[in-house]
Structure formats: C-alpha cells, structure tokens
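USER:
I would value a second opinion on how I read folds in token form. Give me a protein, with the fold worked out from its sequence. Write it directly below this note and I will take it from there.

ASSISTANT:
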Amino acid sequence: MLFRSALTRSGRVQEAEARYDALLAASPSDDAAAQAALGLARAAGLRGQLAKAEERYLAVGRGEGPWAVEALDALARLRQQSGDHAGAVEAWRLARSRGAVDVERRAEIDIALAEALEEAGEPGATELWDGLLTAGDPAIRARAAVAVGARVAETDPARAKGLLEDALSHLQAGPLRAEARAGWTKAAIAAGSTDALPRVRAWLETEQDSALRGELAVATCAALRASGKPAEALTFAESWAADGGFELQMEQAGALRELGRAAEAVKVLAQARPSSVEDRAWVLETRGDAAMDAGDWTAADAAFAELEKLPGGAAAAAYGRARAARERGDLERALELLGTTTDERAAVERANVLEGLGRMEEARAAWER
C-alpha cells in the first residue's frame, strides 16, 4: 500500500489507479479494500475529478472504523480547498460521529471542524475550542492552544502568547513545537515583549534541525516587519542568513525595501536560489519590483525577462513590464502590454493606466468589472 501511495504522491496517478483497482478486485470487502478505495479517491482528486473523488470518499465514509474517519476527513479537506466550507463542516461532523476514533485523532478533527465552522460563519466553534483547551490530556490542550494562538495572534497577541507559552511547556521536539515557537514569536513581538528576541535566539542556538531553524528565523523576521521594525528584521536576517534559505533572503530584501534601500534588495534577491518554479517566479517578480523601487529599469527588465522564460511565467512578466512602463510614464506601452497578459491583477492596473490617459469612461468600466 505504501508503494501505491508513493506512486500517487509522485504524480504517477494512472499507474497508482491500476494497482488500486487490482487490489479492490482481489479484496472487495476487507481492510485493504477500504485503503484501495481511499487511494482511488485521492487519485480522482489529483485528476481534478472532484465529483468522483467525493463519491469514493463517501462510499468509504459510510462505514465504521478508522478508514471511514480518514475518508470523511479527506472529503472535508477536499471540499474546503474548493471553497465549500459548509460541505466541509458536514463531512467533519460525520467524521466525529464515527466510532473507533482515538482521542488524539478526535482532537485533530475537532480542531479542523472548529476552524471550518468559523470560516463558514456557523455557530459551535467556541464550544469546541473551549472543550479542547480544557481537555484532561495536556497533549490535546497543547495542540488546541497552537491552533487558537495562531488564529488570535493578530487581534489578541497577549492571549496568543499565553496560550502558546502553556503549549510549549508540554510539547516535545518536532513540527508542532516548531509551529508553537513560531506562533509565540509572532505574538510576543506584536505584544511588545522584551523577552521575545532573546528567547528566539536561544531556541535557534539549540535547535538541531536546520530546516526548523530556518523556518523560525523567517517567522521572526516576518513578525518584526509586521510590527514596523524593518531595521531589527534586517539585522536578524543577516545574523541567521546561513539557516534561512531563500525565504529569509526574501524577508531581508523586504526589510531593505522598507528602509528605502531597494538597490541592495535587488542584489540580495539576485543571490536567491529557490528550487521550485513557483518560488523562482516569486523571487524574480519581487526582484523586478525592487528594481523599479530603485529606479533601475534595466535591472527590472532583466528580472522580468528571466521570469518570462519560466513555465507559466509569461503573464506575470507582461504584467510586471506593464507596471514598469507606467512608472516610466509610457502609458500607451503599458496598455499594450496589459492587453497581452492573462494575469488576474491586470484589470486593476489597466484601470489605472486608462485613468492616467484621461480615458475616464473606459477606466470607470474597467473598475466596475
């Protein structure tokens, strides 16, 4: 089963489907059949066949036991990703009603349901959160505190800090503790706590996992920038540059731009080496923006030229060049470039350009779209 799951994750969906179908035919009613049906549902989702995926998840979810719970959880997440928050709530409620769910798994489902209820604007979330935060099991309280702390960090940073402080006293090394540390850092900095940076530095100095060190360094810089402290963010980023990878370079560049040092930001971004196409596109577009901030049109054109060469990068490159043309005052060229891009941000930019050209009726129509 692990091999079939690996095939699905690696994109070899057709091969995985054939193997799941064979397993389902050989074992139509046992535990392996439920796993095979779940695999076929995941494969349908990856193919974009959402109705078929829902049907297959529901077929397993109508049963009892752990595989029914896994199917309904997966169905809820599929619906949530498609914007069907009410449908996600329904699926998670069904998952809660199934038997054979261990306490920790039930807590995970309760957290997901509480978040979905809030997103759907339905009542019931407060009661779920209260139950989780007062659970007898400290591991469940900690997991809930991390979730709630993340949700209230901006609106009530003092409460978030307290919740996460308690969670950290119960968590062992691992991804959840790393998430709690990042959340605590954001809340502590927002609350103006003087112990925030010393504590973060202590964590970074003792954390053995380089990836987790990098994530915490990035989260700290982002929190400092969000609190209006770009100079501190820049100093912090430079201190931990070896651990943060390209994302920390992005934070460093952002801080430099906020400090009016856009030309330096361009140089930092030119050194970034993200691995995925999406991240390379993000870096290049940001580099072009920074170059425009610096008034370096040659560097901006170079960044957008690189962006255009990436798979799927042409639309964003045309949008960037259009903005550069508008900044230089070449509104006709900007309008021409905007007519060639499918970037969803182009509509607002087009309205701005039309307004600049004095074509007010067309601009008004563009704003109303």
